[in-house]
Design goal:
About 35% of the residues lie in helices and about 20% in strands. By secondary structure, the chain is α/β, with parallel strands linked by helices. A five-stranded parallel sheet has the order 2-1-3-4-5, sandwiched between helices. The structure holds 1,3,4-trihydroxy-5-OXO-cyclohexanecarboxylic acid.
């Protein structure tokens, strides 16, 4: 079984970007954590970062299909700033039925008001925010648990 770990714009800058918000760990550290968490659960990680909305949509479409075929458990998705702007990501998740756990490193609700609204949350199975990169590990565990209990199947 596969799992998609999808990262949106500016997350390639993790480690150097606003460390007071996002910490000092790099995206490579996030990938290592995800692999260390997913592998013992029998999940094959597809780890992607893109600054382009269309590429994120294409990944959602591909994994939506894999989930329908029973070959993937879903996606851990940090949409970055597209969280707060993108109807297209909302529609992609809704249209494919891909199980998504929206994941934010920072607590978006403790930040500027424009970060309080998410277009992704209404179509996500769950949301992680403010737990740092550990949120990715917890989201992977939740998707694995959900799949093994056939929630929504
Ligand atoms: C973020 C929060 C977003 O508001 C922001 O635009 C990001 C990162 C997070 O992981 O905390 O790029 O998704």
């Amino acid at each position: 079984m596969k799992i998609l770990i999808l990262n949106g714009p500016n997350l390639n800058l993790l480690g150097t970007r606003e460390p007071e918000q996002y910490g000092h760990t790099s995206l490579a550290d996030v990938e290592a954590l995800c692999r260390a968490t997913a592998t013992p659960l029998g999940l094959e990680v597809h780890f992607v970062q893109s600054n382009h909305e269309g590429e994120l949509i294409d990944q959602i479409h591909a994994y939506g299909l894999l989930c329908q075929q029973g070959k993937a458990v879903g996606a851990v998705f940090n949409p970055g700033a597209f969280t707060h702007t993108s109807v297209a990501l909302h529609d992609a998740i809704k249209g494919t039925g891909l199980p998504v756990i929206e994941t934010h490193i920072s607590n978006v609700f403790a930040r500027e008001a424009f970060r309080h609204h998410s277009y992704v949350s209404p179509v996500a199975v769950g949301v992680m925010a403010g737990l740092g990169i550990q949120g990715y590990a917890l989201a992977i565990q939740a998707l694995a648990h959900r799949a093994s209990h056939k929630v929504g199947a």
